[in-house]
Protein 1
Amino acid sequence: MKRLISIEWLKNYSYFPVILFSSIYFLLIIGFTLICAIDSIPILGIPVKIRSQGLLDFPQIWNFLTYITALLKIFLGFIIIFTISNEFSQKMFKQNIIDGLSRKEFILSKVLTITLLSILSTIVVLIMGLILGVMFSKSIELNLIFREFYFVFGYFLKLFSFLSFLFFITVLLKRVVFIFLTFFIWWIIELVLFITEYQSKNIVEQFDKNGRRITQIPELITNYLPLNSMSSLIQEPFQRIQFVNRITGGSFTFEIPYGSILACIIYSALFIWGSYFLLKKRDW
Amino acid sequence: MRTILEVNNLSKRFGKIQAVNSISFKVEKGNVYGLLGPNGSGKSTTLGILLSTINPSEGSWSWFEKNGTTPEDLKKIGAIIEHPNFYTYLSAEKNLKIVCEIKGASYDRIDQVLELVGLLERKKYAFSTFSLGMKQRLAIASAMLNEPEVLILDEPTNGLDPEGIIQIREIIKKIASTGTTIILASHLLDEVEKVCSHVIILKKGVSLYCGTVEGITNKNGHFILKSNDLSILNQELRNIGYFSDLQMENGFLIAHLKEDIDGSLLNQKLLEKGIVLSHLSKEKQTLENQFLELVKQN
């Protein structure tokens, strides 16, 4: 394990795309959370008050921070895409095999990289969350801090399964251009399937006398497509703002999405196994 | 003598193309083998299979008397395939560190192998700044990191200038003199003749010959003979039956041997028949002639 990590470290630590995208990624995450500390942020001339809307209170700060920072995960994705496609375009995978690295070890070294990147990012978000929360939360009680701690785990799983997905399409397609194209098309297809299924259910919006939405949304199969299950790991946090609730008539209840967690774990396993299968099956 | 590699009826089919067709050969410790064949004769595919980068269609092989190729075998093999493959953005030293980690070799070896190929002073330079000859030498250095039992070189002088070619050959000879078994794939016959003790000849995926270079150059050597009456000489040589073919050329008789015999034996036989030779010389075939003949026949 230590050997595989040092191989990955030697390969990547001075590779330009790694330095570029990891700097962008971590600067954005840290920069963003610092901005949240500002009382009133003018966005397009409208003052946005994250603090006074309670998004930095425990426990919803976890929901908010992980949701926002997960939007930046594509930068970690770039690291995976560029480093792994480089292994193939420079024929380094073939050379590694000839030098005596087994296909299993190659896969394992990449899975370790994905895991470490996800852990690192989770730790950064965790630290930023604790700092912001301690500074700005209305109350700092242990049970509040840990009540929705699930989001930190959900964040890790979201990154891990997303990077595993990119790992698989990188091994499958090898060329950066095709990888981006396929990723984009895949994303559109999931979206279209989701909308089609949603519409086919003929869901009628219903509200109670207080203007609260009481529509029962049935389980949608398309919610369990890879990218959709990743995105449903972390609920959209803005419904937690009272002001937003009043407009949309929504209400928020915290639930751990066990179905999506399971789906993401299964998908990650499939993507990793699929990559191994491709490496084994192909001639290099 | 210990068998390093044994290949039995190895085949590989890419769709409709039969790249390797039931090849068998054996590599013994300490020898330098040339794997000869025209372009597209299946050399690289065969090496790819033996190095586990290509899946075979049929057949079996064993490294160090154990079936197949395991990563542990590969750590004892140093191999260079066509192009030197390295991380272009890393220095020579860092690239070799990665190989050390993979092969489980000590970092102390890095300076030793760079010294061997004359690249020690370039160790901090990025691979992308190297000339092709330097890249090829770095590849040899990398293959030597774990003091391999066998070194595989696939077209190591391809695309190099004459100076680069000589440097590579010198390095190969230096390595061979330490007793390392070498398998050298090439389509350059004089190169193989200069450095190899054994040859394996492939054509269209079939192996035509596997044995010593001498075996092939001697086997079909020829005598150049002259006597006062060439027609009687011709007649007698036909009767003796050592020869596959007799030709007249510029007043000399060229007698192609079926199997290797000594010049004195032939002279004695002819004397017994009352023929006195005015000229007798024996010439070995060049590997090139032999190779072309073998490839033509089959």
Note: The first helix of chain A runs from residue 2 to 12.
Protein 2
Amino acid sequence: MELPRKFVQQSSLLEKRASLRVQTESNSAAVWGRGKRRIAIALAALLCAMIVWSSETLFAQTPTASPTPAAAPPAEPDGVTSGGYQIHSSVELGYRSTDVTGSGDMYDTLVNLQTGPRILDQTLTMQSVDHQGLLFDDLYLNSFGWGGDPNNALRLRADKNKWYNLQSSFRRDQYFSDYDLWANPLNPPTSTPSIPVLNSPHEFATTRRMSDFDLTLLPQSTVSFRLGYSHNNMTGPSYSSIHEGTEASLLQDWNTTMNSYRMGVDFRIAPRTVLSYDQFLDYYEGDTDYQLNPINEALLPTTPVSSVSLGLSFDTVNKEPCAVPTGQSSLIVNGTLTNVVCSAYSSYLRNQRIRTSTPTERINLRSNYFQRVDLVASFSYSSATASTPLDESFGGLITRTSTLAFLGTGTADANRISDTADLGATVHLTKHLRLIDKFYFWAYRIPENGNFSEIDSDCINPKACTLLTPLSATVPTIVPTLQQASFNQTWTRNQTELAWDISKKAGARIGYRYGDRQFNHFNDFLPGDLDHFVGLEKTALLGLWVRPTRALRLNFDLEHTNYNAVFVRMSPRKEGRYRFQTTYTPRSWATLGGSINILQESNADVQTQYVGHNQNYGLTASLAPRERFGLDLAYNFNSVIQNAIICFNDTPPTGVILPFVANANNNDCAGNDTANNLMANSYYTNHTHFGMAAVRFKPVKRVMANIGYSITSVDGSVPQFNILQPLGTLQYKYQRPVANLSVDIGHKLAYNMGWNYYQYGEGSFVGPTAPRYFHANSLTESLRYAF
Amino acid sequence: MAGGGDKTKIFVFEGKSRQETSARCLSCHGEAHEQSHFAESAHSSSDVGCLDCHSPHHAKEKEFLLVQEQPQLCYGCHTSAKADFAKPYHHRVNEGLVQCNDCHNPHGTGTVRQLRSLPSGDAVCYKCHVDKQGPFVYEHVPVKTEGCTSCHSPHGSTNPKLLNVMPVNMLCLQCHTFSTQLTAGGPIGPAHNQSAKYQACTMCHTQIHGSNFSDVFFK
């Protein structure tokens, strides 16, 4: 029975992706002129086309996204001088072929580099020789990933001295996510029928397109102006689920858009003093719709024939979606449902149209007017207004309430009003001593209103309510929901440091940070219905830096924080951050680095006993003793733990002993939470080793080669709550060898070839789903033309 | 000088401290909003100056005259970030889609970790993840009060969705357990048999970042 869902789901995603591929591949058939000037003109024309149209169909992708070293960059070409500009340009065209063995979904989740022609990289720079360019003095354009890779971007900068400065970018991210344990109900094999969920019920295949434009006019004048616009649009198929009796799979047709507008003005009101005013407007449109994805369907014994979807969870022993009736061998026999008193869906639809408007004003002052004082201050006020109607309908059966259908309507409104202020001042007490103060204030309140009405069609006779009961045998029940709530937070923070440059070779700083956070949560605005929290933060700060020689540099930072209260259980009462970094450059061709980052957290509350850390130790070496040989090495060890007491409810199947459950104390939680009577100290341990080695060598004058290897090895442990629960991402190896070859074939052309290998393998059992192991070869051949 | 100029008026970077050279650069560039917090920045306090990242005359990168392209330039000191972005689940920094300075301002900000924030004070994460910002009728309050990093590792993670902890139900249970330490007792846990189903809480509680229609984040 998993085939229908798999077919429906995969076919829709594949169709979408195939359509994208056809679009991008057809667009990659660009024709390039042979002359230098012609290429520059072609690139400029292409740039104009992209700016004007901003058409994502022009962009497919392909960063030279090798996770390990790419081929060494070629020497800077001479460029050409034309029209008063010094022009450099390059373009790299190629073809990638990919071969995947194992889980293609997992490969797409982690890598997603597919077969096809690509414009791997393109760069154009134009610099006015005499700063007398007509439209611009400098232009920089770079893009990569055209033709079908998951990530591609275009970045453009242009400026005309004293007149304008333009920065813009377009980025596209194809996001595919199908880690099959994600939101997987782990359907047991003891169910009849047994229907494992082979893909993540929350699979994503969406595309996010982001454009940013920022233009500064008269940047060096007494009064300058700034204009900006950003566009963020995410669309594509994805899947979600809904719980109404049992869990239905939903097609989540994602469609969200944010348009952001910015305008500002800078006034130079005094020497080295600028006063700015900015106006922002963000407008969000959330048009994601949800409809039933009819998986695990079964026929109803009706005439004419109809069917229902039984949803994701299939565990008939635990009556999910219902039990096998006495005398039947399975819940589904010959495609027909044997138990018609079963939670199931014949239809589900939910539409929403979220509209959020967020205007924000900001005023900012920055000044070095006084020789010994650096000052920066800003204040912003923002008021967001969101609203959406509810339009929801359900058909099927919810056995718990004997509901055959419901219709949801109403409106939801929420606001967020925030004030933000920051003030930074650095007072140079002496040439070597500075007093630094940073003040930060952020206050917001979020009043919320929901006014909904659900009209349920409940069976007149609940005991006789089945999937065959006609709607005429139901009575409408109106369930109103009136939600009025609000929460607000006020956060004030001040940090003071004294920095002392002892000499050019050493310095130190010591400081203190004080924070005050107040949080109020009002429910329904009734007297006494109020949560009020006050949390104080006290942090000691210490920093040291030493440069005993020009080649060696060492930094050490420490932050030690005490909080008098926490807002949520897993927030620390004590927190320590320790960071050590060093770089050593004994020769111009050798750089060695090391770092230690330690974060320690704890909350000794007897009911929490939270202990956590994130420790990171790293070493790097970059050696290039000869022009023809280079070596890069890196190793990193990351240890993460997060342990705390939890209360939970767990009854393993008969005969199954789960150590974590068996050893839990079955009384300590019951006093406060009777539904979760088991108490135990939960633990999450993750040890991650990362290693990387890459060799770069030049066997002959025109040939450059790279060979590299990287591995991420994860080992960890967590409690096992469910006998079907594998360790999954707590135990795996992810290996990525790589090899690159670049051959200078003359006439400003280079032939590049890159081979990437990816292998992902988990160490524990797979679980009741599809295996996630894969390995893949990806070969990219390209020609690069540069002048 | 041969041309008759006064050589002493030429600022010579050689031999100067980071503070001195940075002050020289900022005498012009300090007026820009982007560089306005440099004096209070962690970089400045750690003796990282303008010339550690920029080279006015010998830049290898034409963009911003950087001595090296991002993210390799940042990885030179922040080696743990390099390992984080090599994890299977990561923001696409190595791939070039996202740059370090999209989230951090290396010249300093008004907040900690040199993190950028939106003009409204909200986390920079919402610039891309626009659907998570709200406001919602039913806010999952810790998302707003504690921030995204209470559940996610923004650089990279060994877990899907950049989660700090897997499986999801344990991540949830660690907060959703009764505690008298919290004024209202805190959120109690779910009454679901962990052995029966509900392996991942988000299978039902799909709108966990905030919902407009469901107080238990179902829709």
Note: The beta strands of chain B are 89-90, 138-139, 156-157, 210-211.
Protein 3
Amino acid sequence: MSSPKSFLQATDVVLGYAHNVVIKGATLAIERSEQVCLLGGNGSGKSTLLKGIMGLVDVRSGEVSLDGARIDTKRADIRHGLGVAFVPQDRKLFGQKSVGENLELGCMAMIADKVERKRRVEQVLETLPRLREYVARPAGLLSGGEQQLVALGRALVSQPCLLLMDEPTAGLAPVWIDRLFDVMALVMHEYAPTLLLVEQNVEVGLALTQRAYVLQNGVVAFEGPSAGLAADERIVRSYLG
Amino acid sequence: MLFNLLFSGLALGAIYALIALGLVVVFKGSGVINFAHGALFTLAAYLGYTLLEVGLPYGLALLGAALGTLLVGVAIERIAYRPLIRNRNPVVFKAASIACAFIVIGLLRALYGQQGDFLSYPPIVEAGALMVGDFIVPVQQLILLACATVALLAFGGFFRFSRAGRIMQAVAEDPEASRIVGINVDRVFMLIWGAGAFLGGVSGVLLAPVTMIYPDMGLYILIKAFAAAALGGFDHLGGVVLGGLILGVLEICLGFYFGTKYQEIVGFAVILLVLVFRPQGLFGSARFVRV
Amino acid sequence: MSTRDNPYLLRSGLCVAGLLLAAASFFANDYQLHVMTIIMINIMLAVSLNWVMGYLGQLALANAAIFGIGAYTAAILMAHWPVPFPLAMVASAITGSAVSALVALPALRLKGFFLAIATLTFGVFAHWIFLHGGSITAGASGLAFRRPDFSAFGLEATTGMFLISLVTLTATLWWTSRLVASSFGRCALCISEQEMIAPTLGINVTRHKFKVFLVSGVIAGGSGALFAGLLGLVDPESFNFGQMVLQFMMVVLGGFGSIVGSIVGAVLVTGLIEGLRAFKGLHEIALGVSMLAVILFAPRGLYRLGSSRWAALGEARSGGSALRGMTVVKAATTAETSTRRSVPAATEAPALVVDSVSKQFGGLRAVDAVSFEVKQGSIHGLIGPNGSGKSTMLNLITRTTALDSGRIVMFRQDVSALSGHRTAAMGVGRTFQNLQLVGELTVLENVMLGADSGMQRGSDNIAASSLSSREDTSARIAMESLEFVGMGGFALSKGTELSGGQMRLVEIARALATRPRLLLLDEPAAGLSLNRIDTVRELILKINRELGVTVVLVEHVLNLVLEVSDNITVLSAGKVLASGTPEQVRNDTAVQAAYLGRRASRQPKIHE
């Protein structure tokens, strides 16, 4: 066996769509319970990389492993069963179903026992009390910020060991950015999951994490501790050229 | 008289509702129209015929035929749907399902052809009638209506309240979101197709005693299913059931007043009128219909 | 260059085959002649269906009904009046095309399988009419009449029909291959694969769809007359749903959009039916299995990823125009190329004025009262973070999307209310962010789509010139465009064989071939390597400096935009955030904040 791998290890990953190779060889290493941010301008490929780790985009070459076992060959739903939860940028809620149903669906496939499912949903509602208000409302009718909370809750219901979040603050009104920020800080504090957070908003991303990678043109341009990067001129250059 | 017309219409309509439901469950769930649905209906009718010949009681024959049809439906899913999912071209799947329909119908014609072009079922029960209040109700029709209603309700219950049903609904609404929450979408597709085929099968064995069965009957049934679904709205299960009932009543009434040859075109007229004036039907959503 | 691409070879082959068959008619017996005539009719039906399904990509399944209507028209005419057969055939062709145009109406409004259902239903309805048409159609037993008499030529009835069908078939195939290899066919394929961008290439989509349906209807209706004449009897069962499915199968088996494929499909299907007639149900099984096999396994068959959907069994299609293009260009390169535009003198009128334009999608204001001006002959950058409305803005300019409010003025003309293809006719070319080229056309033919459009509004007196000289000019212009962007060597490749970056360049060539005055580029550098981005940068400068084209550039790769633009407008959340020279924009703190995100104002608050 090779040297001890990190909890989440992506090595020389190449992935993309039919005519478009988006990630051209990226390497990440994330330890258990670490919170790491993926930054980069438009077209840097950060969202695609996250989707590749979840299994929604095929990995063309390279390896992704979770806790020592390879996952890049496994289907997305199997990865979910292994503890990977994904909060997509467009939330991808079941718009016609109620918030409560959405939350329950977060663990419907993995848990057959109705009582246990209800218990988990209740637990998440304790953490995100704001959701109680609209437990019965169809998810599609909520505002962007509210939907983001539901998506996060749905991910937490599966009690994941790896939480992937794709630009949670994108398109949100400033008051919701603050709210979401607070909620996420709370979740990090209480659940301490391993977190890989993709963010367009540099400030928010760095404030919530300990370490960050900056992607540019499909490869990792540089990385470092979040606190230090906040003032780094290289970031402005990588975004604005 | 009106009562009898309504009753017959509802009985017929309930069966149309079942068939259309099977079609729409597959459409909602996997996004494609199974053009072989009519052939599955025909298959069930013939399977039921054989099981009855062998001596099974009607109820068991119904179940057996529906299960057999379920299996064939799943087979079609694996042969003609699964391999083609990645292909963006919509024509491809229609062509594949038509090909499957042809194979099924050809097989039926080859296997049963010697026995004649048209076969008839033994009656389910002794022809008779009940008196309900002031009205005469033919027993056979009553049984039809009862069975169809039970099937519809059972399916509705399963779909809405059981875990499998709720997972199917999730996949029907958004397969990618379902993947994210750990649902094995491929396996659910199989279930969806099986369910659709089962519904089609049940309706096949229910309708068979009332008419003569022949290998090409599937086409006309398919058109009725389309009509019911178009009327109700292709992505609204409840609407489709209502559409079927309305279609049945319309057919019986118009057939009575104008002659049986006009019964057939009720279905065509409904489809054409709906698609021209209100393509999304009564309850469907318009976004997927218009260019 | 393989022989099958050459249309000249196809046509000579056709003549030879035709003559051979004609000669053979004297040796064959009645039954054989009958079957061969049926095959020829089926080929024409397959070609007719192919026009609508294969080339235009519409799932219109009313062909059996149109065939039937044509047949009944001829039968009724010949049964009740002494109408000579050729006249009856013309009448059938006319009714066929009229019904086909009627079917085209729902095709304009309904999507995919709803269109299929509507047209199938129409077909079943037609069958019902044939069945219950009383004394006019003579119902189920069919309408019989005296078959056309060829004794004046010393021929028997069947032989006579065979020869007429042969002539008609040859004419049909010739006509179809000419149409396909011309702008008509290219436009149809463009509509089929990339309907949204067709107007930007000057294509009037509605009118073109109608034209294709008319062509299809003429062929199907005429075939109906031939069928009637052959049998001396028309009955409803010849035009039922099963017939429609058989036609569908011929096209699927043989290959969409392929003339040779239509022939192969028709022969295969007819052969199977005739051969297996004795065994109940066997021909259906055989047809079903073959169709399934073709779908699942035919390597370049229906089962193709992306937008193409063509079968492998032979394409006698318009590779010829590309071939012609090459030979013409080889001759032309020795001559001087005259089509370089001179740089226009600096004028006062801006190329483009966007005035308070807004667009709302549901609850989202994608573009909110945006105004800016683009000077003629300049390069204008349009940038902004994700979701700022840049692409929507381009769509509004080319009228791919309709405005909610505001005005757009191009070269002093208000285009706010014009339709897409008319805006294109004003001299606007554009590329798109995600779309690919028309997969079934070669690279050259893709660019010829643009050249055709440019020629339409050009001063060249095209209306007077012949089809082949128009084709040559179009190919020449297209080739020049390709050379200009550096993709000349790929002229005969298929669109799908190129890499993303190469396709981008071809799209630019296609836009250039329309001879635009204003060129809109939508993220040309997205996903490209650094080398490629340099190539694109050089190309943009070349287009602007050498051809004098005004360029509006939407891009994410900011160094590219900052380097080439004369002026930049920055959008954020649908509004104009800043505008000015590249330096001003780069150093604008509001712009920096928009891209990097607002500050989190305080420390996180943690609940007890």
Note: The CA atoms of residues 408 and 416 of chain C lie 5 Å apart.
